[in-house]
């Protein structure tokens, strides 16, 4: 009985963004997909959609992005009975959860700081722990990997700005984690990578407040499916040439 | 009755490191000195030493580097009755507190992550808030400043490494905060600056585990007094040429 | 009569490295391939190999990487009569030429500096001019591009070190060029990208002085074919998510 | 008969910018000053001004910033007979020469590229060689130094932009040189440092095309004297805490 590769993603919002696009793409590529988010309705809707399309997905809602909740969901995933036959091997984990806050510094509250750090950093430590522990149990595959751990970063991961103190503190911290892990676990054939998303992504939410010119011009905004393709590319890199970090931005983005 | 400039520093360890050296130097330059740390004995000893040397210092112990405790100490400082006559004007604030943790990733606990983020980032947000609010009440001085906010950074602020995931996450986050503040408050003539300390500092603690060759060779380790001088230089920069970031390392450091 | 896409690459060494691997890969993908290098024998051998394998390649030897010679080769390429029918559309240009020099600073000669700057920077300006002028004549393709300009960078593009003053000066300069071009021509749907190759590549040359352990361990050195695949990926990115820069290193590389 | 410290600076423009301000400041601090530039009139005027003010300066015009001319000027300086008694010890060298060009890429000529690379990089290699060879003959002074080599950098040293391809290529290259030298010669107690000037400097030239609001507002533009003070500070750093790089910008600069 064969083993099927498993893709775990945390952070799928309402199902129209990067996490969901990646889930759909990896499902098409034959991965079982474990979806983690706080919103159970979105999870179930996306899982249903993927399953209807011939994939195999399951939702794992969590109450919040606390360290404990984030880590323990890996136990739930490991215990899950998939409908198809065969065991699962966690091969790709995508940390796409995050918490943005854009405010002048004096408007930033203690709660804002804590939420940004907990969601963007602390929970990412827990997620990384769950993923790395699972990867270490894997054999090295034909590409020279035990697993790939992907992080969704942002411009705020490399540049603090006038309204991003709390958000940038979290995203810088996440980038530090990703670099530390890349250096420590590359030696064990675990690939850790960080994508700097430098621009707005077309989602249900951004569509609700952006103008038509932006929505309709593919040179101006990121397509979540294109980001997902870059994640797939990173996963498919073989052991001789791994990327830790790349940036992604629309063709016409000013930067 | 004249106003005296006030220097606030958080993080003085046992009184042999950067925070203490800066406190001594600014006291010599005529600043009143408010010392913040968790260890009341160290605080009192250092305050006593400065006062004996003709300076004016007071200790403000805090129970921990929680957001609330860190912010409220500014109220205590504002309420403090200094022995000399005249009111105080907070002109320089140095965030030198920190929490280091060096461990392989899988040994890093939830508590390690939280401690690093709380001390290195959350408390720095509170400290910055206290400082900025005080600075905004100041006139612009002859150098073109309302105040200077100094952050002690580290190599781990710009590079994650195999045993620094939790520490680097905190120090990256602090650097993000400092850059955001520099951009937002430069326009209000508040100078925010970040020093990357890239090497070991000679302190009571480092002396206890380093060898004689290191201790006795001034080309190999940082002197806390030299760091303090660089902080004084940054404070004395006039409005036309402010530094956000500089690095500091011993002459013979390999980097 | 259809138009065939053309791939131009400068810098193919003796045919065992990155430039040659990219030429082979793009030929397989249906591109005509124009090979530029100083060594006519290597060019002809590689062109012959690609043609024998069913591709279509031609060599364009140049006397040196002067500005003039590098730029004028684009005229030669435009004037070339390909054996198959149909006109060519230059769609991908790879600047892979370079000149490395590793010496203590006081051993670096005027000639070393000039050679590094001419080959790594000045010639790259000429190559970029030739490529951009050609791209501007193209329609925007289905991926939203007029063309892709790829630069092979190195660790020395982001870090000067004790024996790399002349090499790093050239590679930093090349990186500056690539970033400037990416920002200026993204708006015209020309994609410019820079790869930081952070490790040794397995080539005929490196095999001649490296030990067996290194040569035989795919975790330790870059495979030129894997770099070529990353270039193909970058070319295939659609307009919504373009990468300017990524790093590539072997799984076990210490960095 | 005592030895007097010598300060060498290349690039003094018309005497109203950074190089000239540094020359004045180091003259006031007791350094003999050797002025290098292409414009003999400016050199003589500045030398005369410094000498009238009680300093000791001499001009060393060079025909152009070729490698040979730049290097040989160190021989001329060594052979110079100063009016006061005592030999000279070259202790501080400032590379402030540069060549800016701001043009859309397709307007950049071969000559523009070569001029930028020659002046910003090649000549800086020659200047560094002259300075390092002189420093190596010095004893280590009380601050732990044989000498300090200062480089004036720019925003274009860390960021390429739409009209800066040629300028940024030069300034990136210069930065690479400075970092390589800092790492190689720190071990010999030679301090190499690089200042990123991030904003406009008030000079005769900038005054001719800027508006009154900019000229008269010290929060908006750099004062060359303030940059000079930062250079003096860097020179005075002791061996335990050397800065390789700092940025300098006006208080209100948007960045």
Automatic annotation (TrEMBL), chains A, B, C, D:
Domain of life: Eukaryota
Protein known as: NAD(P)-binding protein
Species for this entry: Lentinus tigrinus ALCF2SS1-6
